[in-house]
Amino acid sequence: MDVDFWKLLAGLGLFLFGMFQLEESVRALSGKAFRRIIRHYTAGRLSSIGSGTLITAILQSSSAVSLMVLAFVGAGVMSMENAIGVIMGSNIGTTLTAWIVATLGFKLKIESLALPFVGIGGLGLIFFGSATKSSYLARLIIGFGFLFLGLDYMKVSVESLANNFDLSQLPHLGLWFYLLVGIMMTAVMQASAASIAIVLTALHSQLITFDIGAVIVIGANVGTTITVLLGSIGGSPPKKRVAFSHLLFNAATAVAAFAGLPWFVGFIKLFIDTNANSLMALALFHTLFNLVGVIMFFPFIGMLAGLLLRFYPDHKAVLTVYLGNTPSEVTDAAASALRREIRHLFQECQLYNLRLLGIDERLVFDDDLPFEKHGRKKLALDDLYGNIKLLHAEIFAFYARLVAHKLDETETKELERVIFASRNIMNSIKNFKGIRQNLDEFDNSENRYLNAQYMLLRKRLLELYHDVGRSLAMENKEEQYRNLLRSFVHVEEDDKHFIRETMVAVADKKVRDLEISSLLLVNRLFTQACRLQVFSLKDLLLSQEQINDFDRALDMKELLEEEKAKPRA
After folding, report:
1. CA angle 534-539-543, nearest 5°?
2. Is 63's pLDDT higher than 80?
3. 53, 89, 97: which is closest to 279 by C-alpha?
4. What is the residue-wise DSSP string for 408-458?
């Protein structure tokens, strides 16, 4: 009766990895059409309960359905109230297992689909690449595979316990004891269906009485919530709300069923002889008390959702440094805070770009930036990008409140300039995000020329950030103006040098046709992003007169370039 600890641990790891893949792929695939389908079939309380019942009856796994709900809520596709409805319905749907075992002696094992899911999903990732809709669909499939494979590993690790579990050997310590047996047995085996199958087998063999079997089934309903609680480990507050709602609903239903056991048994005896046909009677009991639980909770779904929101509130990180304590009514102070916050936004974007290109940020920044200051953990690249987007949203919301006050024309135009700077910053980081996969390919390519170009792009970015760092440190506006203009000229010169080098490489056949296209695309978006960053600082740091001079200087440079390119008569 030993438990294979390492297989149990591996199962838990595969299970959590499958949950992560499932949630990430759902988030990536959740376009308008997908969200519309989910919301259509879970639009109201009755439809969400019906959907949960039907899907669980088909899949024969309330845990799988609850985990899908966990992923949908975590990805922002399903509302909390609808999620509770689906989970309530899944409890009814899972009772079909008892009916199948009672009537056919057969239980559909969805875990047997794990290996085909992993195989098909893995092949899909290879054939479809890593950043297409098809690849996310492959991740969704492989996520299901790992989810069920993990559950299967956890069950197999304790299969000797399950196979040798002789209920007749348990001491008669009262019905409370058997309730705990049902909870622990299902929690260990990670499948209420397996527990119910054992109970039905024992009942059929007359090893236990009907009342004991009924109580163990009640306990199994509570034990199955462990799966979803495991799935919410390290999850967001919405995922924790879903997991706790599952526990609360199943626990309350179990209390009602246990307290009303004599009434339930008496009611069932009106239709089925619990001695002559105990298996059908137990299947009916399983369905009946879950139906009662749904009826009992149905009017309070909204209240339950609100209560869980209070217990597990959304922890919104304070991303702003200067805007939070500055009232927009004090317009002078607010305008100054807005400028400083946009400088903060620029720095966080610099950090994102440095990490995307694998450049040590200490080459640019002496201290941690606000997102990671005061002991906060280092953010993953995608989380950093998400925080930057949220910060920009808060900046724009503050700007909207500020311009709602009566400002003179000069102040209004100045604020328009600085908010335009923030938009340029965001457009630049979007460019970097867009070429992330190409940059990884250049870095990991076997083509040395692509490796060299990757290193050159890193050098170009670092030089730009050293240039703009000097501009930010300058107090003299004229010096700032000249330094920013020089930075822009350097960006343009680097762009032309890159194109010339690429043309030579093409002539020397150092790159293939597809690589040429990737090189030119990456350089174009990279250069455009660098220009936008210089432009953002121009609007943020310089006076209107200097901005006009800057723009005229660029126009003059373009005219000179055009004249130089014209053939001489």
Report:
1. 125
2. no
3. 97
4. -HHHHHHHHHHHHHHHHHHHHHHHHHHTHHHHHHHHH-S-HHHHHHHHHHH
Query: Among all chains, which residue has been given the structure tokens 């209390």?
Result: 255
Q: Are 360 and 320 in contact (CB under 8 A)?
A: no
For residue 392, the model assigns a pLDDT of 94
Q: Tokens 């970097």 identify what position?
A: 432
**Looking at residue 107, what is its pLDDT?**
42
From the CB of residue 130, how many other CB atoms can be counted at a distance below 10 Å? 12
| In the block, residue with structure tokens 């019905």 | 175
Residue 1, pLDDT above cutoff 50: no
**Residue 375: what are its φ and ψ, rounded to 5°?**
80, 5
DSSP codes, 458-499: HHHHHHHHHHHHHHHH---HHHHHHHHHHHHHHHHHHHHHHH
The one-letter code for the residue type at 38 is: I
- Segment 99-105 mean pLDDT: 60
pLDDT for 535: 94
Is pLDDT larger for residue 35 or for residue 54? 54
Q: Distance (Å, rounded) from C-alpha 342 to C-alpha 339?
A: 5
Nearest to 522 by CA among 461, 454, 466, 451: 454
Residue pair 320/345 in contact by the 8 Å Cβ criterion: no
Q: Is the pLDDT of residue 403 over 80?
A: yes
